[in-house]
Design brief:
Elements (H helix, E strand, L loop, with lengths): L1 E6 L2 E3 L5 E9 L3 E10 L6 E6 L5 E3 L7 E6 L4 E6 L8 E10 L3 E5 L3 E5 L2
Parallel strand pairs: 2-11
Antiparallel strand pairs: 1-3, 3-8, 4-5, 4-9, 5-6, 7-8, 9-10, 9-11
Length: 118
């Protein structure tokens, strides 16, 4: 089993920045995709961004040009740099990965709250 622990959420004013971090630990053999989802009140969980072990990246249209995802494969860590934050970015952000730990599975973090408000 793998465990994911997020950090870095908080309250920020519109136009501000936050950096989320997520570390995967446990009996990990290999990790494929690592990414971030978010869920706002009353809405479905949606993909924000993911990055493959080879470095291929995908972003939701709503965050392109403002958010940057990166990862360190050796440290099983993924980051999400969020700039030019908007009130509509307010949500609980969840880290997600898939991989072998030691059998194949998909894993989720507990979530970290991001609130963008003046």
């Amino acid at each position: 089993q793998a465990q994911l622990v997020e950090s870095g959420g908080g309250l920020v004013q519109p136009g501000g920045s936050l950096r989320l971090s997520c570390v995967a630990s446990g009996n990990i053999f290999s990790i494929g995709h690592m990414g971030w989802y978010r869920q706002a009140p009353g809405k479905q969980r949606e993909l924000v961004s993911y990055i493959t072990s080879g470095g291929n990246i995908n972003y939701a249209d709503s965050v392109k040009g403002r958010f940057t995802i990166s990862r360190d494969n050796a440290k099983n860590t993924v980051w999400l740099q969020m700039n030019s934050l908007k009130p509509e970015d307010t949500a609980v952000y969840y880290c997600n990965c898939d991989g072998f730990a030691p059998t194949y599975g998909e894993y989720w973090g507990q979530g970290t709250q991001v609130t963008v408000s003046s």
